Amino acid sequence: xxxxxxxxxxGRSPEHEVSLESAKTVCAKLEKAGFSVxxxxxxxxxxxxxxxxxxxxxxxxxxxxxxEPSLGGGCFVKKxxxxxxxxxxxxxxHGSTGEDGILQGLLELLSIPYVGCxxxxxxxxxxxxxxxxxxxxxxxxxxxxxxIRAHQRASMAPLLKKARGMGFPLFVxxxxxxxxxxxxxxxxxxxxxAAVNKAFRFDTAVMVEKGVxxxxxxVCGVLGSPAGARASVNGEVVPRGKHEFYDYEAKYLxxxxxxxxxxxxLSAAAAARLRGLAVRIFxxxxxxxxxxxxFFVDPKDEKKVYFCEINTLPGFTSHSLYPxxxxxxxxxxxxxxxxxxxxxxxxxxxxxxxxxxRK
Length: 359
Ligand SMILES: Nc1ncnc2c1ncn2[C@@H]1O[C@H](COP(=O)(O)OP(=O)(O)O)[C@@H](O)[C@H]1O
Ligand SMILES: [Mg+2]
Fold this sequence. Notes:
By secondary structure, the protein is an alpha+beta fold. It contains 11 helices and 16 strands.
């Protein structure tokens, strides 16, 4: 019997559309890998729907029966009757509620195995302050930053002063967002407060980080579990045209907004170091399954590298970085997905063995 994998996509974040594209690849390649696939569409609001793979792939609409989780039942139920019990779930909702542990918490309550990071690692990975601090504790190089929280907004002058003291350019970003939403490169002291206020539109905490001017951006895929993980080759993301950094437009709106150099043109020593750091960060943050780890490299000195962020549910569209990094490493997307399902099933089996009674 084929294993049934429920693929949950859509969601409430600004990355809703990216998730739809990721789900197309994930569903098609899971079928290719020999699974039976159940696509679960989570609209921006309202009930989830069970849609057909062929409708998703052809863009033929996201209609289908409403489904809802049955918490005690460890399954989903269709409106009008009928139980759906996948062998594992594959969340592919990027950003808030999908990548930050919230969806993972629901899946834990359902006791259905799922792919990717658990609740804690997802939440940690989404928070740029906590993930940097944990990485730094493990000796990973990071850039200095200042955090401003919502309750400090009324009297943030001393924090802005401290941030200015780090020198320019500065990068201002919401602490737990993605896709460069709300991110500003600030070159002059006079522009700092406006950038901070803009970032506060998207989050209740804002990070002002020391910038690496014209930073090289190196990305690395990691695949594995806490028991052992491996890194893909490195890629280098080069923003093109008018984009001074890898902003939202360059990511999604401008077809020529970026170029991916595969593998990244680094010396063998620098490439090996970054791959090693990526695995260390993955393990230090308690990740499982997949993650893309992003670094900044000083354009004048490839020995100066800094951890930027970890993405625990990276894009999985046909032109996304994560599957391309693995393809270049010699692992086709269907192989990556098969391994991810196996890791998810193993993690769930391990958890099931834990004692939940007191004796
Ligand atoms: N400290 C920094 N130095 C140089 N560039 C930065 C810095 N921080 C952010 N950037 C630029 O902004 C982009 C988005 O920032 P990032 O921290 O990756 O947030 P997101 O989660 O939105 O992708 C990066 O890809 C990079 O182009
Ligand atoms: Mg990023």
